[in-house]
Design brief:
This protein has 2 domains: 27-145, Glutaredoxin; 169-275, no CATH class. Helix content is 41%, strand content 7%. It has helices at 2-20, 45-62, 126-142, 149-165, 169-180, 185-192, 196-206, 217-227, 270-275; strands spanning 33-35, 75-80, 95-97, 116-120, 146-147, 257-258.
């Protein structure tokens, strides 16, 4: 009975998604996600796989093209429970992994060296599944081997846009509410009033506290909301993670590096950077904020 109920819920969610996703000209289907049959529930696997296809298709529309470092072979995606993320200590799902070896908690089907996604267990929460998956595909589009607070903020913004495109605004509002509630009261009030200038100043002032942190979700959520406050051209995000002149990309055993963003080299996304308070334009001219 429970299995049938879960399958019915997911099927209804999928039907709503198919009605809500924008009807646009389809680009070539480049990004292909393959869900692990062992860690995703058997009763909802077909629906979740179809939803995964919709998510990847939407991101291919937002950020068309492929990275030269990544041939877009199938991206294997599995779920892990929070208690299974003990290996390497700092690893927390959801995460994109490109390690040349299989981590202790990874399924046997993982091919070392191939990019794969580890999502945290979402049960039948389709919104959480879409949010996590979109975030990780955005990392692939930007470049999977480099991360920092800005890359995480950009990936969060993309995942928010996908939730909107797929008609999952209630889940996005829930997510925004939970994360924004952890910010100072005056910042929350400014957000509710859409007073963007002080919000940008607050976000910029908070950068010095980030260091190599990639887990400050309230900070990233605020940045993502600021990015979406303007009309966004997502296309220049392709490969933006590699626009860094001082980052040893091959020094980490997991083929991964955490480096501060090289803002000067990221002028290709100047309008996005300006929306979160960076004083930068595509041609290097200052803009008053």
């Amino acid at each position: 009975m429970i299995s049938r109920l879960r399958g019915t819920i997911v099927s209804l969610c999928l039907a709503l998604i198919l009605l809500c996703i924008p009807c646009t000209a389809q680009t070539s289907f480049a990004t292909h996600i393959v869900l692990d049959r062992e860690t995703f529930p058997a009763e909802s696997y077909p629906e979740l796989q179809r939803i995964a296809n919709l998510v990847s298709q939407d991101i291919d529309r937002l950020i068309p093209g492929k990275m030269s470092e990544f041939a877009y072979d199938d991206i294997f995606c599995y779920q892990i429970k929070p208690t299974d993320t003990v290996a390497l200590g700092v690893i927390r799902a959801p995460i994109t992994i490109s390690a040349d070896y299989r981590l202790p908690y990874e399924p046997q089907y993982v091919i070392p060296g191939r990019t794969r996604f580890a999502l945290s267990y979402a049960g039948i929460n389709v919104g959480q599944f879409v949010y996590q998956l979109a975030h990780e595909i955005a990392h692939v589009k930007m470049g999977v081997r480099l991360d920092n607070y800005l890359i995480e903020t950009l990936a969060t913004a993309v995942s928010h846009q996908v939730l909107i495109d797929m008609g999952m605004v209630p889940y996005l509002q829930l997510e925004l509410g939970l994360e924004m509630a952890q910010l100072p009261a005056d910042v929350v009030a400014q957000y509710r009033a859409q007073d963007l200038a002080p919000l940008r100043r607050y976000w910029q002032a908070s950068i010095s506290k980030q260091g190599f942190r990639m887990d400050d979700r309230p900070f990233q959520t605020l940045g993502a909301a600021l990015i979406r406050s303007e009309n966004v051209d997502w296309r220049p995000l392709l490969g933006v993670g590699f626009l860094n002149s001082n980052c040893p990309l091959n020094s980490h055993p997991m083929n991964y590096a955490a480096c501060p963003p090289d803002i000067e080299r990221m002028r290709v996304i100047a309008p996005i950077l300006h929306s979160i308070g960076y004083d930068i334009t595509p041609h290097g001219l200052s803009l008053p904020l």
